């Protein structure tokens, strides 16, 4: 909101690229609800165990209040049940647009019954019996990804206004395998851009001097680490405190913390605040034995359908949060943990679905925090050279 004097009342935040529910949502449209549900079921049977997929529909019986759960009818705002083999959550009242994103934003894919709900992308199923219904919903065809059936017999109003783009995939109704294979390819190739973040904003209290400025060989640790990340990332930033902006010298852009007093946790959140649609490869600047081979190892095993891909640190017996790829869905999860009084990135990893990678050389996760460790490490590196 901007006042008449041009004053910005609210912070100008970068918003994630969501549709109605999610970054990746597809409405199935053009046929009856039974066929849409059947098609969604095929997709879920094939990929539901590999990816986080949700389905959005309307239950026609929901208009009968007698079918609401008993405790909701008696006035409960929500009912949460352990059904032994699954969890069930019921809520009284409607979800607003932001609630929908909060509920389903972490999914890999949201499938939507287009007869009842909109989505930012669509798959059209050719069905002469539902042609009139498709024409009525033509305004929903904003981004058609594929057609199942014969597009030449789709209703004329749909084709005349060119809502079905030329060159999109077309699948015969009898070839379910081709369609399912295409869906799988989309799910497997939905990795978002990877950006790099070098954590260099610590106060180095134990060391007594700035760890990021240490030079073991040729370059200081800030820039050496950024150089390691650069071949694997679209952009690389050096994370720092605001007071360091005029002190740090680097060809890489500096990214000052906007979540203050939270250490590495705040640095990671600040990166997501800058670009919530990117995955962030976050590496501490005090890992002198880290090398490009190890970074390549982590990136090659990246699991974009989890919250993060992290190295397992055998010395701590935990995931190492400061040499980790954090996926976009981790942004909201970290904020939720923060609201619970948790500001430890390792605790987020321990309590989230992640992929753990055991490095070929565990020595690469050795960090240097004290003057004594610094002297020992410097001698080791110089002796190797």
Task: Quickly list its features.
17 strands; Spore Coat Polysaccharide Biosynthesis Protein SpsA, Chain A; seven-stranded mixed β-sheet; alpha/beta; Rossmann fold; six-stranded parallel β-sheet; 385 residues
Short account of what is shown:
This protein is an alpha/beta fold and 385 residues long.
Give the domain tally: 2
Class from secondary-structure proportions: alpha/beta
**Fourth-level CATH superfamily of the largest domain:** Spore Coat Polysaccharide Biosynthesis Protein SpsA, Chain A
The CATH top-level class label of the largest domain: Alpha Beta
Judging from the principal axes of the Cα atoms, what is the shape? elongated
Q: Biggest sheet: strands, sense, closure?
A: 7 strands, mixed
Low-pLDDT stretches: none
Draw up the topology in text.
Elements lengths: L24 E5 L3 H15 L5 E4 L13 H4 L4 E5 L4 E5 L5 H8 L4 E5 L8 E4 L5 H6 L7 E5 L7 H5 L9 E2 L4 H13 L5 E6 L15 E3 L1 E2 H9 L6 E5 L13 E3 L7 H11 L4 E6 L7 H9 L7 E6 L4 E9 L2 H11 L5 H6 L3 E4 L13 H14 L1
Parallel strand pairs: 1-5, 1-6, 2-5, 6-7, 7-8, 9-12, 9-14, 12-13, 15-17
Antiparallel strand pairs: 3-4, 10-11, 14-16, 15-16
Can you put this structure into words, describing what you see?
By secondary structure, the chain is of the alpha/beta class. The chain has 2 domains: 25-60 and 71-188, Rossmann fold; 194-384, Spore Coat Polysaccharide Biosynthesis Protein SpsA, Chain A (Alpha-Beta Complex). Helix content is 29%, strand content 21%. It is built from 12 helices and 17 strands. The strands form 4 sheets. The protein has a 7-stranded mixed β-sheet with strand order 13-12-9-14-16-15-17, sandwiched between helices. Strand 10 and strand 11 (219-220) form a beta hairpin. The chain is elongated. The mean pLDDT is 88.
């Amino acid at each position: 909101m901007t006042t008449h004097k041009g004053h910005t009342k609210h912070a100008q935040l970068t918003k994630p690229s969501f549709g109605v529910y999610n970054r990746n949502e597809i409405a199935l449209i053009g046929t009856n609800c039974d066929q849409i549900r059947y098609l969604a079921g095929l997709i879920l049977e094939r990929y539901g165990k590999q990816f986080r997929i949700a389905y959005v529909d309307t239950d026609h019986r929901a208009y009968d209040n007698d079918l609401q759960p008993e405790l909701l009818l008696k006035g409960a705002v929500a009912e949460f049940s352990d059904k032994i083999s699954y969890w069930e959550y019921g809520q009284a009242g409607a979800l607003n647009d932001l609630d929908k994103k909060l509920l389903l934003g972490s999914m890999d894919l949201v499938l939507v019954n287009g007869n009842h709900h909109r989505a930012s992308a669509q798959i059209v199923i050719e069905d002469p019996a539902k042609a009139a219904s498709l024409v009525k919903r033509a305004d929903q065809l904003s981004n058609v990804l594929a057609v199942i059936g014969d597009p030449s017999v789709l209703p004329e109003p749909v084709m005349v206004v060119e809502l079905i783009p030329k060159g999109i995939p077309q699948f015969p109704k009898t070839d379910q395998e081709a369609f399912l294979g295409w869906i799988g390819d989309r799910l497997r190739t939905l990795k978002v851009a990877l950006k790099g973040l070098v954590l260099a904003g610590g106060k180095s209290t134990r060391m007594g001097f700035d760890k990021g400025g240490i030079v073991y060989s040729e370059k200081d640790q800030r820039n050496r680490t950024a150089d390691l990340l650069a071949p694997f990332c679209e952009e690389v930033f050096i994370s720092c405190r605001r007071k360091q902006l005029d002190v740090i010298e680097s060809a890489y852009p500096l990214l000052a913390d906007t979540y203050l007093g939270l250490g590495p946790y705040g640095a990671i959140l600040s990166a997501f605040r800058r670009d919530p649609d990117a995955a962030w490869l976050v590496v501490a600047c005090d890992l002198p034995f880290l090398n490009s081979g190890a970074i390549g190892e982590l990136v090659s095993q990246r699991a974009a359908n989890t919250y993060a891909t992290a190295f397992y640190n055998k010395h701590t017996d935990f995931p190492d949060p400061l040499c980790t790829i954090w996926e976009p869905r981790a942004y909201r999860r970290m904020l939720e943990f923060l609201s619970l009084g948790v500001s430890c990135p390792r605790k987020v990893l321990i309590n989230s679905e992640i992929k753990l990678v055991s490095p070929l050389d565990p020595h690469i996760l050795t960090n240097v925090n004290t003057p004594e460790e610094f002297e020992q490490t410097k001698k080791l590196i110089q002796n190797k050279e």
